[in-house]
Model the fold of this input.
Amino acid sequence: MRRLRPYIFLVLTALIFAGNILVGKALNDLPPLTISFSRVFIALLVMLPIGAYQAWRHWPLFRTHWQPLLGLALTGVAFFNALIYAALQYTSSTNVAVLESSIPVVTMVLSFLLLGERLRAVQWLGVGLSALGAVAVIIVGGEPGSGLARVNRGDAIMVIAVLVWVGYSLLVKKHMAKFPRYGGLLVMLVIANLALAPLALWENLQHGGVIPWAPRQWWGLVYLGVFPSVVALLLYGSAIGDVGPSQAAVFLNLLPVFVMLGAWGLLGESVGPAQVVGSLVVIGGVLLTTRATGTAGPARKA
Done:
């Protein structure tokens, strides 16, 4: 069970991130920086009683390693999701999910180049199979005009978000173990709030200073503030320390599957045979990579 734990965490992370996309799309009548600041502010309130003691006790550690801490906060906590919500203003949730599922390929290449990770041939095959199912089969089976062939502003913003998350994953692998789990996340949330607050204020001023709020938006922001902002980051940080950034990122290929299922179950959208086949291919790629890890151990820095 201990060996399965990181993979269970990664599946849960993919589910939560799929919810992040679906809820973010439902809230796209709000400006993206306002959504981002609201979620990190709610997350800060959640983490304050949990991580305050660790943050106070390890303050000299945070001060010594402030540079990687700042990088972690700005990439994974603040601007990755801000870019997602900005992308959802211009493109579909399916496009966002598919582009986010390209993270494993980018992470794998950069981990190989920057961290010296060694990947077995079967692991490369698993990543490729997952990418094929997520990008090729699912997109071919999607709605006309919804695929990557029609690159718009939202797709371009999402490409930047992918690079930001890859940077976060590499920082997690190299630096996250230095910080206490709850205190570290709390300090990162403080940094994210400080970074996003003036941007959200500027955004509100651009909209005349008055943004309408509805009850459903508050519930959506509570979900974003608790699950993607706190729970998923803790799960992902734990799993990535066990299996490495390349292996962990493979599970993000499940995002298009979960997003399509969520859109079908919550929004009544139809799912055709091509989407089902694509889902099976994606899951097959994840299982193949996991099997390779279970027999040979996770890829490590050379």
